[in-house]
Amino acid sequence: MLQNPKIPKSQTSFSTFDPRYFSQIVVTSEPVTDAWRRWIADSKFAGMDDQSIVQQLITHGISPSAARLEVSSLHQNPYFQAGHKYVQVLNKIESHANILAELSFLSPRSHTIERRDHISRTEFLENYYCKNIPLIFPSIAKNWSAISKWNPEYLHEKYGEVEIEVQSDRNSDRLYEINVDQHRKKMRMADYARTVVNGGATNNYYMVANNGNIEKTDLRGLLEDIEMFPEYLDPTNINGTTFFWFGPAGTITPLHHDPVNLIFVQVYGRKVWKIIPPYYTHMIYNYRGVFSEVDCENPDYEKYPLFQKIPIIEVTLNPGDAIFMPVGWWHAVKSLDISISMSFTNFVFPNKYEWTYPAITNS
């Protein structure tokens, strides 16, 4: 409690205020900004109690009275009330996903990908495609002439004069997949193949699906070296569904899910896949489109603590292997060697879906 200073006897009869005998009281407080208000709402939605929120605000320089007023008035805010309604629905969905994850641990096979040498169209549809379960086809492409033909030298010699598009200067931009249009570069296949061979392991350049070289260039001739799988794929549907990948060791496709089902075939070199089932989506920090904010190669568990709880399935594809990656399954891919691959989305089954994507920023 503030104590009044002692007043000299000679002035005790004065009824006027004399500031010489009183100290000025200055109250300083950090402002409650919109950023703090977002943090308060996020904390409440995450289940933090009011007292803990108030204490955090005080710790960061906001006055106790301002902190208490801001937190106590939150519950009457109609915007917060509307948001809280949707958070409750989201929490129910997340609790269901957690149960599915918990149930999966009851099976020792739940965190592995099954391998099948051959499977009929009917069985594939009923047991994998419809059930949204991945599958590895070991050596399914072993009879492709591409397995013995395709390498950087072959591409240099046969397609060296073809103008191709590659994704370049990726090391300068952490969001190179999202900012894909800023990284498009045209060059001759001969120059690119030479760069891949001589440049060593790097993630700085990569010919990826988004470059569309199969349908846009004379690289379409590469399709003569493969046999599309008619049990599962429609060989008459090529444009926008058939993709060519070529790059050095060290290329990384960051953690994401595809909006459709796909089959990915490894032709030359090896790739390691890190795969996560879709019922862990709420722990993956999906912040924009189909991408996770987490660097799967070097996850920051302090920043993304939920990610540490996720069991990651890891598989390596060798030349001739293929993997069926169901729609919505998360995966990150890294090339262990100079690598050439194909991917396909032209299934004989329906393969178009309606998605709602987040667009979360740090602001």
- Which descriptor suits the 3D outline? elongated
> Number of DSSP helices?
9
Task: Note the gap between the termini.
Answer: 41 Å
The main sheet comes to: 5 strands, antiparallel
The low-confidence runs, each spanning 5 or more residues with pLDDT under 50, are: 1-15
Helix content: 25-40%
How many extended strands? Answer: 13
Helix-strand pattern = HHHHHEHHEEHHEEEEEEEEEE
- Biggest β-sheet: strands ordered side by side in the sheet: 1-11-6-13-4
On the 0 to 100 scale, the average pLDDT is: 91
Strand coverage percent: 15-25%
Structural class: alpha+beta
**Rg (CA only):** 29 Å
Summarize the structure.
Helices cover 26% and strands 18% of the residues. It has helices at 34-45, 50-59, 64-74, 78-104, 121-129, 145-149, 152-159, 189-198, 213-216; strands at residues 135-137, 163-167, 184-188, 242-247, 252-257, 262-268, 271-276, 286-288, 291-292, 313-317, 322-325, 330-335, 339-344. Mean pLDDT is 91; it is low at 1-15.
